[in-house]
Amino acid sequence: MAARQSTEWTRRSLLAGAAGAAAGLRAGQRAATAPEEKVKAQPLDLSQFEPRSMLHVPQTNVPRARFPLIDIHTHLSWGDPKGESSKLLMPAEELLAVMDRKNIRTMVNLTGGYGKSLEGTIAMLHKPHPERFLVFTQPWFPKVAEADYAKWQGDEIGRAHKAGARGLKVLKSLGLVVREQYNKGPLIKVDDKRFDPMWEACAALNMPVAIHTSDPEAFFLPIDRFNERFEELNAHPDWSFHGKDFPSDRELQEARFRVLARHPKTNFIVLHVANSENLPYVAENLDRYRNMYVEIGARIGELGRQPRMSRKFFDKYQDRILFGTDAVPHGRQTPQQIFGDRLYEIYYRFLETEDEYFDYAPAPVPPQGRWRIYGLGLPEGILRKVYWDNAARLLGLGQAGA
Ligand SMILES: [Zn+2]
To answer: Domain 69-395, what fold?
Structure first.
């Protein structure tokens, strides 16, 4: 052990040697400096690790979006599964105060529910503030096992439209949660034919479909030391879709694309950039399906860690990308979604600046994986499209601020 120590060249002894040479000592002669200090590495629990970046790089504050915008992906209310009531997660006045500060002209509340829940949501948000809040409806999945569901659900879209719904939102529960008898039996596939009248009704009524299918690729892998989202999954093991009877990520993606292929007149806003870890795959499908749009909510952590690929993606598909955040008031478990000033400032910084290596979520530890992101510095023309024009076209709205 002693012999080993004497021949071991550590960085520190190398530096001591260099200092000796500088002081004019002959080779082999030891400098009369303090004996080498043994610094013992302490074990550290990963959950306690909060490294602070030592980079001296620009930090741009973007308190307000450069242009008025539409946030196409928010959750401001929840309806009960029976479709009887709905609850606003934050009073409209509080939402509006943030929106005014951040230059958010319109927010689309995707989880408007159905039946009386939908009517309640529209009465609380859209009716008093018609230009600031739009509301989407949702499929009535608890009725899926009923014999005449397919036609009934198609007709129900018409009733929701009459009530004031501007689009349809489909949660990732389609493909991962909803089963033949709603909560038991085999999982119902995303491209199940029962939903065809629903997709067609959306085309006929000019209601875009905001669809979330599958989840991050890492959620379909074992929760182990190779999983890049280990901490997130370890904290929320129920978010994992690994094993059991869950389809693979790719099977879910492909089933959703078959729906797009079968209903070319229906516009689909594919939420969370469809598959944000695999932009070439998303691009291939954007080229194939003209009725496909993507939204960036809760995925700037993915887009921002591949900034060169993302920048090219925004250049090429600038007419098909929509601004969204997946914001939820008080969403404690998911800091990347907590509605408020800080969240929007991060999105604006990502889209508008070329800042480097910054947090994608307002949290002490990056919640979706331990990395940081790089701004895209989008030019004015693309920003205007992403912030407003693309969503406005799909929602039948006019010019920004008009
Ligand atoms: Zn969402």
So the answer is: TIM Barrel (3.20.20)
